[in-house]
Design goal:
heterodimer; A: 244 residues; alpha+beta; Alpha-Beta Plaits; four-stranded mixed sheet; two-stranded antiparallel sheet; 11 strands; 16% strand; B: 731 residues; alpha/beta; N-terminal domain of TfIIb; Rossmann fold; seven-stranded mixed sheet; six-stranded mixed sheet; 29 strands; 33% helix; globular
Amino acid sequence: MVQQLAMVIDAAKCIDCKGCVAACKVANNVPEGQFRNWIKHAEFQVVPGISDNKARFQPGACMHCEKPTCVDACPTGATYKDMDTGEVVIDESLCIGCGNCIPACPYDARYRNEVTRKADKCNYCPERRAAGLSPACVDTCPTKARVFGDINDPTSAAGALYVKNRERLTRVSAQTDTLPNMYYLGDPGPGHWGGKAVVPASMVAMKESAPFIKGIVALSGLGVLAMLGRQLFAGSEHKEDTDA
Amino acid sequence: MPDSKQTMSRRDFFRASGLVAAGAVGGPALLGGLTKARAASPAKPAWVSRFSACDICFNKCGLIARVEDGVITKLDPNPKFLKSRGMLCARGNAGLAQVYDPDRLKHPLLRKGARGEGKWQRIPWDEALDMAAQKMAEVREKYTPCGHLFTAGSDLQSQFVGRFAEVYGSFNMTSHESLCLVSGSRAFLDTFGEVPFADVLNSKYIMMVGANRFEALVTPDSIDLMTAIRENGCKLVTLDPRYTKTAALSHEWYPVRPGTDMAFMLALAHVIINEKLYDPQWVAEKTFGIEQLTAHVQRYTPGFASEQCGIPAEDIARMARELAEAAPASMIYPGRRTSDYEDSTQIRRSFAIVNGLLGNWDKPGGLLAARQVGLKGVPYDAPWYDENQEDRIDAGKVPMMFEHEGSFVVTRDSVLADDPYPIRGWFIYKTNPMGTAPNRKKTIEMMNKMDFVTVVDIAMSDTAWMADLVLPSQSYLEREDPCSGLQGSVACACVVKRDPVVEPLFESRPLFGIMKDIANRMELGEHFDFTMDEYRRQQTREIPEALGVMDRDGVYYNPSKVYGIYDGRIYKTLSKKVELYNQRYEQMGLDPLPNYTPPASPPENRFRMVIGRNAMITQSSTANNALLHQFLPTNTLWLNPEAAGRLGVNDGDLVEVTSPVGRQELKAEVTDRIRPDTVFMLSGFNTLSTMQQLSHNNGASINELLDDDYDAITGNASMHTTFVSVTRKVA
């Protein structure tokens, strides 16, 4: 079975210490004033006496959705869903920084990195995982509210939690349901904060007519490749033209 | 509109298809190979990993520094570190920003202008050390050894300041503790014979009063508290004039009237005793003074307490019964900072007494004795100085100070009055009384009284700003530190040490080396004639395997006894039992049982100011941290909407806060998370030092506003006794 890397979060365990946010910022060189992850606050009902026992804080980040609207909004294919791991990935070399994907995320998980000028978001810290470590936010979390792993693998930390609690797991309900892969144990905390995905109409149209368009694009791409081939094999005077 | 929309779409479409085609030029997308190429795992980071222990607060959580090309790129928790339950909080992560703070001190600086004017001259180390030694010698010559004061923060190297002070001959040594916890320690020490550690993890009922454990993090308590309430079925009840994050996560919260905790506690005792809810065998065998306590608490009915603290009487009675029902796995959480009122020792005695009635001492879910760590002290013989003063300058001014902590506030008053003798030299290491002691103007006066002040720190704190000589010390990740034994409650008893994870920056030097160099210049060198390695071997002489284990795991655990330490042992009190009634207090003319005095109510249009923490701040040492600054860019004045409405203050308005000792301006945060009669602000902001770029001229300084009352028994500062007025600042 393919993987689905995900987080299973017990929002009720979150003490809003910002450890996860600080760890993420350092691990990923997130520019000043920008954030890849967050802890949202519920509307506190400040009532003395016995608590309503609702979750107060909600840790979150990119939810690596099943139906990622950001992928639909990306014109270059830089953002895509990795079919092997289930991650939503940004290939920086393909990202043109157009910003289409930013409003396309109903959870506000994306931003344009001020330094790289490219789209940026949580990527589950691939370098750390290559070193055998958890993502920085998960590793540092004092109360271990954030649990990470492959939910299709019941032996992973997240998978075990996922299997054990399947019937009471919740997801953030956004106006656009993207089937997020961030699961909350019980109360996910502040409800209905998920917004609406704003995907450029052209991109939606393109998605719907994808096979047709891809065909055309492929053909035009092949055409361009052929042109490139011709250029490469042509004389140097053409190159000068290109450089100019 | 439809037109422009159409245009957009068309442009988007062309841009999109064009780019995909462009992508195809450079890549194998159409050849089907891309997915695999993208999914290939990235290279492992090229870092080396080195153990250390955090130093952004006192907890010393175990960490692993990831170092690339001699630069720390990330601080991670040490997963084997049980005391912190393998975590590193936001501040721990921000240690990086402390080490690489552009405001770090780079070389020795000598004051050139007037004190506090901020004019400095860079001088070489040799000159700086010669000068420090010469000035210390002059002060000793002129005013006796006790004419020099030594102050050190909670740091693994602070013991060398203490050692230096003693061999120099001064009894005058203060620390941060008398601005923090000495009255709470006193109260539990004078009840149980030692200061306990709370077995939060196994407790079934925790009363959190005068503490905020989900924001003022203490390891392992803060983490264990969440495990206890979320996984172990523990009930958490919080009393706090603020709706803190701890309050928000508690099963019950009551906005207690500030200063009335004792009435609440004595009412709990009233119910537990009168309804005979305690274990009679425990009370008979292990405690002293139940008869006196029984008589004493009769007047403290839940009804009386309710009138005082504002919590319904039936709830107080219910909580007493619930606590007793869960006993001995229930507790009044002892708390840490107790520098709140002028009777703070007696207030915390009432906490300790209820714990005594619950019979939770030395038992799972209760209060635990210190565990054996195995670390030993390194003894030395301090020389005798015939011409010296007889005692500390603050001696005898309050009855029960801690010998090596003293009282900063009482010491300061004594210095200002030359009472009973003059102090004219001050050496300060890594603590910042200018930023942490109440009534900053008095600390400035104290500075002005000095002939020479030497400060060793990593940054130009306000205390350094007022000094004559400022010496740059190494950060915790650049130096070798002695071993330190840590009590981790039920989690562990352990030892940590620090070795450099990177080369020291600039001209910074470790305090140990500085003390050694000054000692050598004063013919005191023999007392510092050892290396750090030799010192650590002395410390670990009874656990010789510890050093190697620490190199391997970053921590050494002593698998010592957790519960039942007192089986067959006597308590270190006069009666050799848990003293509900304190006999020594009686002998000294102090209240042997805590007598409740109702706190003064704030006069009309004034508010009681309370202080506190959140998880992004450590007193005055983090407001200039560039990473933490992003979470906490400034401090605000918490003001209840009812009070704000009366004052015509809106959320975000600039307000002027005036106390009997000072005046500050900051933005109001209008919130129902605080009582209408109380205001709150965080510490560390509005530094005088311009070399703290993020905190200078930003927000308000709380210690400029706080009056300098103190606890009558220990001299611990009382920082909840100041009334302030608040007015909207008209631009």
